[in-house]
Write a structure and sequence with these properties.
The protein has 94 residues and is mostly helical. The chain has a domain of 43 residues. It is built from five helices and no strands. It is elongated, with a radius of gyration of 27 Å.
Amino acid sequence: MVLVWRLAIGRLAGRRWLTTMRRGNPNWCKPQAMRSRPAVPSSFEEVVEELGLSPEEYETSPALKAWVRKNKNQKYVPPELLERWGLRVDTNFS
């Protein structure tokens, strides 16, 4: 019953029902649909900003080193800094 009604509506609109039922995103190839997200600072960058550190001061900051030790397995930390401090990331943490 519903299918017959939909076919009738499709014919009234001048189209077949199958052409009015479209699947997928019709805007997938349009530039507006592919906008990139705004850049958001990482947790590491937020902590560095909060501590007021410059890149030259990263190695000598005890507060930053304590944060890195606590969060190295869950947050992004630049690999160069981990190497300088001799810290390793545990990829199998739970």
